[in-house]
Amino acid sequence: MSFFSAASGSALWRGYEYFRDARVLLWQQTDTNTLQGKVRGSGEKIYTVSVNLEHPRASQCDCPHAAGRKIVCKHMAAVYFAAFPQEMERYLALVEEGERQQERRWEEQRQEIWQYVNSLTKQQLKEQLYQALQEKWGQW
Length: 140
Ligand SMILES: [Zn+2]
What we know:
This protein is α+β, with helices and mostly antiparallel strands. The chain has 2 domains: 3-83, no CATH class; 92-135. It has 5 helices and 4 strands; from the N terminus they run ααββββααα. It has helices spanning 3-6, 9-20, 74-83, 85-119, 122-138; strands spanning 24-31, 34-40, 46-52, 60-61. A 4-stranded antiparallel β-sheet has the order 1-2-3-4. A hairpin with a 5-residue loop joins β2 (34-40) and β3 (46-52). It is elongated. The N and C termini lie far apart (49 Å). The structure holds zinc ion. The site of zinc ion (ZN) has 7 residues, from loops. The site of zinc ion has 7 residues, from loops.
């Protein structure tokens, strides 16, 4: 399993931010499959991280979120990005592509709504507006 697919979207993004904000204090690759590092957490506590490159979910971190659980936390992601800058570039490109796709979907949705509104008669528009306002006021 690749590191990206083992980690949640928020762990990867927060890990990227931690790396960017220089919270990875030190890291080293200790063997083919292992990265070790120290990462400064949000509460200024320093966490000890060991990333298992072959089995990312077997990685370890002594933060409260990851301790004793088989998950990839943001501290592991930060160490991973520190060790593999090209993987970080690839990750950022994927995030950008995802944002572009989302923007295209929203644009399509806006066009669909506009076409729908344009297709209505004046009477239908009045009814739709009345219904929408009634639903909105019904929530108060
Ligand atoms: Zn952690």
